[in-house]
Specification:
With 378 residues, this protein is α+β, with helices and mostly antiparallel strands. It has two domains: 4-64 and 189-377, QueA-like (3-Layer(aba) Sandwich), CATH 3.40.1780.10; 68-161, Thrombin, subunit H (Beta Barrel). 21% of the residues lie in helices and 24% in strands. It has ten helices and 15 strands. A nine-stranded mixed β-sheet has the order 2-1-15-14-12-3-10-11-13, covered by helices on one side. A six-stranded antiparallel β-barrel has the order 4-5-6-9-8-7. A hairpin with a 5-residue loop joins strand 4 (68-73) and strand 5. The longest helix has 14 residues, at 350-363.
Amino acid sequence: MLRVADLEYELPESAIAAAPVSPRDSARLMFVDRAAGRVDDLIVRDLPGLLRAGDLLVRNTTRVLPARFRGVRTDTGGRAEGLYLHDEPAAPGDPAPRCRVLLKMRRHAPGARVALFDRSGRESGVTLELLHRAESDGADADSGAWVVRVHAPGGDWLPRVGLTPLPPYILGARRRAGLDVADERDRDDYQTVYAAEPADAQARPEHGSVAAPTAGLHFTPALLERVAGAGVALADVVLHVGLGTFKPVETEFVEQHPMHAEWCTVPPGAADAIDATRAAGGRVVAVGTTAARTLESFESTAQMRAERSRVTRLLVTPGYRFRHVDALLTNFHLPRSTLMAMVAALLPGGAAEIRALYARALARGYRFYSYGDAMLIV
């Protein structure tokens, strides 16, 4: 078993990327070749030369929702802010939409109303009415959420009021540095260039992500063209990233952690592409832990075709044998996180090796977290 303490490291605030580099593919790339025992310092735009003709690059095409919102209580005028999580089923005889949200304000109580601001900080006409606390099985990061009724003349309320759901560590770093927290650029920066609208056939209450699949943020259209030009095939999956991706592990051992649930799907074409890649001797390269988690949540490509979609609670730690993923492009993750544990599982030296690689990255000035630099493990 893996001790959580083995995923601990000290990160100076100066190493947290408060904004992305521009262009996206100019981020730094730590290249880890497991077979050769070599580590190189490169740039993301070097990626096509690190892949082989016949490899398969698997992307998560989920779209990040404008999930963060701000407002005031209508009774007290007290400030409120929160995060949209997903829609809830409508109540019989009540046409008003309902959703699940996290709310930060004083004195939560059924019947309280929050008038939301629009993206520019003006009144939007949208009001949330608290109904009851949301049920939770205790394992999800949205424990403590509320189910609310949405009063929104004109409908389609979230795009009017929603802000980019930047992680708290980015917002905090910007505040402490005196930078603009509500940067309009984030609406594009915190979205992959290949993010897709969900297909009706795969409709779910969780119809998008509240956090970005950050490894994919490094790609530009030009880089994708160069990857394809190098003979590398592309396949797409979807995993809607939830708040649990940021939840620290608080148990003594990572395997004791109550893993959060996320919905994912593998289209039949992606399963076919994996089989074709394997048959030709190519490698399956996951873009990010979310793409890797999606693939590894299915025992076989036959199961991918039969089920297509499922809710996954997969937890990957060192000792896990990967079924589908041969290589991984990923960012540098939070300490004590399940994401860091998954990356460690790909390394021969496990947690000790990932700590050493992170120490090397810090010594060489790499930028960490969602807007930070990348690592490619082959």
